[in-house]
UniProtKB/TrEMBL annotation:
InterPro entries hit by this protein: OPRT, Or_phspho_trans_dom, PRTase-like, PRTase_dom
Binding site for 5-phospho-alpha-D-ribose 1-diphosphate: 100, 104, 106, 126-134
Transmembrane portions of the chain: 73-99
Catalytic activity: orotidine 5'-phosphate + diphosphate = orotate + 5-phospho-alpha-D-ribose 1-diphosphate
Enzyme class: transferase
Protein name: Orotate phosphoribosyltransferase
Record function comment: Catalyzes the transfer of a ribosyl phosphate group from 5-phosphoribose 1-diphosphate to orotate, leading to the formation of orotidine monophosphate (OMP).
Organism for this UniProt entry: Flavobacterium aureirubrum
Documented EC number(s): 2.4.2.10
Length: 213
């Protein structure tokens, strides 16, 4: 669920402006999963643009307080959401921890890095939601560490059915600043893509794992 329509449209436009989101239906990208895709999203670019990263941290802060109240701790999912998570925690005056994909193989073998007490209310910050699997691994690690996970916020979601189902099964409340639907509407309106390219992008999301195979 998006925060609101205006934020979704503005966030999408900012991501397009800095090429954090690239759309190319003629020369598709290959994801790490092997999927062929007409879209590629790298929200880490936000950190290189002070005005945009400040906008994102402030919208995240408003979203978090509106949906979850003020938590005890902000958690970022490694590695993409560590930077923006720290900015949000700093802006809200809250402690910050981050969650590794798996426990370290040495030292204290932590998966959750930072000071976290059992029973603390935590909101998880993520940069991008595709299937949701890695994000939900982070949620589970926090729960195992004794956190009360209130929910998750993300910059952008593709809105895949599998992600919606995964978050529903895990009973995790997800809210995003922008999503695929509002991105496409904005991209057409601002002439980033043609109506024909829009059709291709809409078809891709219906079955991304087999598109263009």
């Amino acid at each position: 669920m998006i925060f609101n329509k205006d934020t979704a449209e503005k966030t999408a436009e900012l991501l397009l402006q800095i090429n954090a989101i690239k759309l190319n239906s003629k020369n598709p990208f290959t994801w790490a999963s092997g999927w062929q895709s007409p879209i590629y999203c790298d929200n880490r670019l936000i950190l290189s643009f002070p005005a945009i990263r400040n906008y994102v941290r402030e919208e995240f802060s408003k979203l978090i307080e509106k949906e979850f109240g003020k938590p005890d701790v902000i958690a970022g999912v490694a590695t993409g959401a560590i930077g923006i998570g720290i900015l949000v925690a700093e802006y809200m005056g809250l402690p910050f921890v981050y969650v590794r994909p798996e426990p370290k193989k040495h030292g204290r073998q932590n998966q959750v890095e930072g000071f976290l007490q059992k029973g603390q209310n935590v909101v998880v910050v993520e940069d991008l939601i595709s299937t949701g699997n890695s994000s939900l691994v982070a949620v589970e690690a926090l729960k195992e560490a004794g956190a009360n996970v209130k929910g998750m916020v993300a910059i952008f979601s593709y809105g895949f059915d599998v992600a919606i189902e995964n978050f529903k099964k895990a009973n995790v409340d997800l809210h995003t600043l922008a999503d695929y639907e509002h991105l496409l509407l904005l991209a057409v309106a601002k002439n980033y893509i043609t109506e024909k390219e829009l059709s291709t992008l809409q078809e891709w999301r219906k079955n991304p794992s087999t598109w263009n195979v």
